[in-house]
Amino acid sequence: MSALDATHAPGTRSWVESANAPDTDFPVQNLPFGRFRHDLTEPWRIGVAIGDRVLDLHATGLVDHNDMHRLMAEPVPRRRALRLALWEGLREGSALQGVWTQALLRRTEVELGLPCEIGDYTDFYTGIHHATTVGKLLRPDNPLLPNYKWLPIGYHGRASSIGASGQQFHRPRGQTLKPGATVPDFGPSARLDYELELGAWIGTGNAQGTPVSMADAENAIFGVTLLNDWSARDVQTWEYQPLGPFLAKSFATTVSPWLVTLEALAPFRTAFVRNAADPQPLPYLDSEANRLQGALNIQLEVWLQTPAMREAGSTGVRLSQSNMRDAYWTLAQLVAHHTVNGCNLRAGDLLGTGTLSGPAPEQGGSLLELTQGGKRPLPLPNGETRTFLQDGDAVILRAACEAPQARRIGFGECRGTVLAARDL
């Protein structure tokens, strides 16, 4: 696991003045990676977020390419050396200021895309509070299935429909079965929802047939983003048995554009503690390091901006807050379990955590939870209500890390907007 070093010193300032603002997501202690371009005519370039600017990594001379997969697959010591070099060059008093100023771009002047091309996408179900609440809606007497506390449950998702923050998508159509009906209807989903998640991006992969141990699992992860796993709940209810999610999930997934590295998250580690009454992880999912520091203190928020709010000039309303440390499984355990059967992960593969809800009812990471399956409409400050998402609604996910003796860092926003269903 990443150790604290000079790059985490909370008092370090940058010569990029916007990086010193107390509310910035991207101080010099963060330095996340992403891809940018000026317009559609040019290829993607690797950038590093610093304050309200983007540093063109190739223009600094620290790398001789713009291949994000190649960068992510570098051995951990090289990745840490690159982070240190970036920190040295961007900190206040750096001799490189005059040269690197030419490599800085305003974030508002470039397009941010997916952090990298995604090969495969697996979505897990690590949020036990989400799983319990949803389980109670379906099975009041037995909300958690017997395997939940023994293994990280996941399914293989669709990579082609994943988009970067700012993604707009049309309301999906599909089959649904109304209560009491015996014949399904076909049409636009009436129960469209969001899911508050994090995404872990694989850097160093493994050979097929070679499992990744808990000792090496975190070395396989390059960075973390926010992830919104949009869900058509009515389509899902009808189709998910016996093989799980399909069309209810594959129409769109949105991620934030900046990969916050595990090195940047080192100050926000916390103990991973399993309730003594619960089954303890099997040996292949357990390690002393994971128990001591496997969990991450990442504060999460969901915001909603309706069309009426947008027209009134409002940036939206916060619907809920939760924290990654409440997840039932750690990121290392996801990697170890995913590969224990010999499955090979590759640079650019994406692992979703599943919905990260908190223990209190108001901490639900989806409208399904906040409205009790649509039975209790959620009142909004402007007089509107929501049970599920309406056309024109924008959902914004945000996340930040704070701890004593550490500089606050953030993830940027993950924004997606629902458009009306297309005509067939």
- The DSSP helix count reads 12
Q: How many DSSP-defined strands?
A: 27
Poorly predicted regions are none
What would the CATH topology of the largest domain be? Fumarylacetoacetate hydrolase, domain 2
The name of the CATH superfamily of the largest domain reads Fumarylacetoacetase-like, C-terminal domain
What overall geometry do the principal axes of the alpha carbons give? globular
What gyration radius follows from the Cα positions, in whole Å? 21 Å
Instruction: Name the structural class.
Output: alpha+beta
List the helices and strands and how they pair.
Elements: E1 33-37, E2 45-50, E3 53-56, H1 57-60, H2 68-72, H3 76-90, H4 97-100, E4 104-106, E5 111-112, E6 121-124, H5 128-138, E7 154-156, E8 162-164, E9 167-170, E10 173-176, E11 185-188, E12 192-193, E13 196-202, H6 214-217, E14 221-228, E15 231-232, H7 233-239, H8 247-250, E16 253-255, E17 260-261, E18 269-270, H9 288-293, E19 295-296, E20 299-305, H10 307-311, E21 317-323, H11 331-339, E22 350-352, H12 367-370, E23 378-379, E24 385-386, E25 394-401, E26 409-410, E27 414-419
